[in-house]
Queue: 4 jobs
Job 1
Amino acid sequence: MDGISNKRRMLAGAVVACGGHAFAAPLLAAPGVLLTRPIPSSGERLPVVGLGSWITFNVGDDPAARAHCTEVVRAFFAGGGRLIDSSPMYGSAQAVIGHALAQLKHPPSLFAADKVWIGSGARGPAQIEASRALWGVPRFDLLQVHNLLAWEAHLRTLQGMKAAGRLRYVGITTSEGRRHDELVRIMQTQPLDFIQVSYNVLDREVERRILPLARERKIAVIVNRPFRQGELTQALAGQALPGWAAEIGCSSWAQVLLKFIASHPDVTCAIPATSKPAHALDNMLAARGPLPDTALRRRIVADVERRT
């Protein structure tokens, strides 16, 4: 049995605890130990890889499909994952996550991240409560205003919930590089714990303004679309890994792409979505072992640009 299969078997047996080693920012790293970064507003640490649910968990009421998604979530937790992200925008994903969590007896390590996505600020609280009921959690850890929709009203609601002890963290999101100027203004003027933006080896605009501002303002950063919604992994499928991949402990292109993101010191957590339990474990392996340094990051960019 090869090394990757052995690791998967080991990871499937238990949730792995964090250990210690520094890299480029306050980051825990050691061979076989989970890499984590702190949430700047609290110091709480999160694994650098989480789980998204856009498209992949929108499977409706189909029992077999729901059972399959439960296995994805099981594999994610077995690999040491914590942060699961969803939204009312994602069809049945919230209910499917709730079903999985119930089947898994509500793992205590869960970091539940959801969003408010409705044009009326007055209707935000009802939507949030509906989302919480679908997840089956007592409260969310993080709520985010999805794609800046009605953000002023919703941020007031979320900050009120946080002040009342009904929410731990407040954030705001955008995706696919949209409305960055407005996001910057919000980051400069509003008390945020998190932002969520698109970032990957080919889409790097956030490196210019948004990630430095997040560092300055002490805001955690969640990265969506790390694989360009599967476009990057599909383009690289079947291509042999370069020799340098072994230097950072990578046995798949997905791990390379995630380690590129995680190696940026201002990124807190990347949230790839997947419909396959094996891929959930493979993704979590990117949260272990060494990360690329600046020179290797440049080489990864050049290599992926050439191959895609």
Job 2
Amino acid sequence: MFYSRAPMKPYLRIPIVLAILCLAFASRNARAQALPNGYGQAIGVDTARKVAAAAFAEGKKNGWNIAVAVVDTAGDLVFFERMDAAQVAAVKVSQEKARTAVRFKRATKVFEEVLAGGRNAILGLPDAVPIEGGIPLIIEGKIVGAIGVSGATSPQDGQCAQAAADTLGKQPTPPAPPRPATPPAPPAPPKK
């Protein structure tokens, strides 16, 4: 068998090397931004209502008119509420932000930053909303759903969503298992 390796054209070397470097750095960044958490039992309506209330409280405190959607691990709506003065488009956008966050296991802010960095390919991902305001909800280390907030600016939506997600992190932690009792120190030898 005869194998001949033709030399690579010099004008192709630099673009190929640059492409390989871009792919290596892009995949490293994507791994760092994904949540390693697995999915847990889907969030219930009572917990979803409490989480949404925290987002509403943050919005009201700052005078922002928002819509809040909470979805389960499949991205299906569990709870939704819109302030009276919130724009109508916020209804759909809040739900899509929540779905993006739970299905891709990352905050939608990550997609917005990637797009702002010039990676337009992110627009080709199906059902991905690259606008801040969607955050996965985590209980006991497992993703149980996500929250999406829309109606204010993207950073303001993100602030409301983060305030809501933080309420889950403030749950009481289970007590640590009791430590085994340490044996008493042996008696000191008698003095002479």
Job 3
Amino acid sequence: MNNHFSAEAGIVVTTQDTARNISLAPTDSFPEVFSTSRMIALMEIAAARAMRPLLGEGQLSVGVAVNVRHSAATPVGSSVRAVATYLRTEAKLLHFHVEAFDDAGSIGAGEHTRAIVDTDRLLSGAARRRKRDSTLTTQSN
């Protein structure tokens, strides 16, 4: 496998991408800067794009692990891009170095791991969990 493949994903930060936007209750207080969760999502998208050539018919890639640090605050209106670069494969897991940048430089970096899965199998497994969850709810009432 080519051990130098990579891909990117980028956005312009809006209020929807900020930490303040992830608040669940009025008592949650987060700043209006690019959120860590959105940065991780951008890193995942970049890694998924890098894996596209490896996917067969009916397959997709899913994230299974993330270990990153978010090192700088990015204001609304800034451009942000994430780059995912293939590092290695262990068993069925592909590991990527991921890094995000805004207009002033690096804002975060780490490692992201993805796996190739059969789309139908993934969706049927998720549906089984929904059925199991409703069974547990019914039993506890």
Job 4
Amino acid sequence: MSDGEKKALIFKWLREIEPLKILLPAFTLLCLLNGCGPSSAEPPASLNGRWVGSIAFRGRTDPMIMDFYGASGEWQAFVGKPGLPDYLFLSAVNVRYQDPHISFELRYGDERLSFAGIIAGDSFKGGARLGEQEMVLELRRTGAAVARTSQPFTEEAIQFRNGEATLAGALLLPSGPGPHPAVVLIHGSGRQSRDEWRIFGMLFARRGVAALLYDKRDVGHEPSGMDLVDLRDLAGDALAAVALLKARNDIRDDQIGLWGISQGGMVAPIAAAQSSDVAFVIAVSAPGVSYAELYQFGVANALRGRGFSGGEVSEATDALRRLDNFVRKRNPQGARPMLEEARRKRWFEFSTLPPAPPTETELRTWVRWRNLDLDPTRHWERVKVPALLIYGEREDRMPVNKCVERIREALQRAGNSRNMIKVIPDADHELMLAPNTGADRRIAPDYLDTMTVWLREQLELAR
């Protein structure tokens, strides 16, 4: 083809596309309006939605829900449990997604738990590590994510002291003018941060009650699982938090109460019994018997659940009683032959019996020995303020009927008629319904409703 022929073809093509040049600006505008421009307009749909499944940690499986959605190219995620209102889901941070890889972080006090995983269609599998322990997270997408609005409260970092212990945490303050009533949340056993029970702090703050959350003091968690702490020291920590609130102008100093769960349900009455600054007590799954009896009951239940015979259960609980008696007589070494024999039993590893008698240091420091025979009812019988106690009917860590009866009698001895004790059918120690493990477990609705309705009634009576 000659140069002249080539030029003729080019001029012909230009004449043919000339009408299209007029349409190009309109086409570009339509692309921008309808999202066919840069990829930042709308995030991929491969992550958006509600994901339901479970998280396995330390031999236990719990249900978990995550909502993922994006806006302006940024991903957001919220974490909760079945039965928990959407507005109480906790936010994840640093959410990153590059198909198929996803990562995010969950708050744990001043630390962050870093999760990473893979998305494959409607399935997510990943996990995180906490020390040497691995968490395994498995989820499946079930529908659309729930849109969320801003929370009706603010959060303020706080710090306070109890003797030589310095404690830090957060104060959730309701929106609107104060002063506000307030509640201090007390942890269960083990190492726990301010975020362990944050959802309940959020629940109270949304109902107009300021909530103080704090990182539990260093309990010196031993490999054996024994906390190095005394319940009376933990009660002092809670009262130091009450003192901090009492000194604030935005808090009603006559409406500061305590909320405690499990071990915290033993700590709360100890604190309330010794301070006139505590206006109410809410205790969830609160033991009404000593540690000695709790261990025997818990071990018996655990062994039965693993299929051990009645004779084996009796052997294990008898060994626990004998060890406790040696400790009471200040002769723990006398238990050595018995423990050596028990170590040869197949139930031993599930019995919480130590492999050797407790040392003098352990007797002075482990909560199991320091508070072996501490009777919670001795403190409940000195609690004069309104008290709410909530239990699960399927409680497996304590004799629930006995605990309820003993605490009820203690409150009667205190002359305290302003109390309510509720046992929720089919609920367990954590007030969860349905199976013991797995994604089908959900928070009992009666739990949250009972707590918030009762508290608002008490605060109105106190005005």
